[in-house]
Amino acid sequence: MASEFSSTIKDCYGNEYEVQRMSPNGLRGFSCFAYLLTGDMYACMQTIEDSLHAFERNPRLFIEETEFG
Questions:
Q1: Whole-structure pTM value
Q2: 38 versus 1: which is more confidently predicted?
Q3: N or C: which end of the chain has fewer CB within 10 A?
Q4: Range of the domain at 62
């Protein structure tokens, strides 16, 4: 039920976490990643571009850290 939804959750250690709803733009995973890195869920395109540049500059990172390597 939507009325039972809380905007914060608490883990077994008592740490509280705020639940951030993401924009339903089809890039939800990238939006979450952008929010984690920048605090702005709408910075997903810049975050993707920055990640691709990092892989271009360090091919070994691409090989070691992705399923395509």
A1: 0.58
A2: 38
A3: N
A4: 23-69
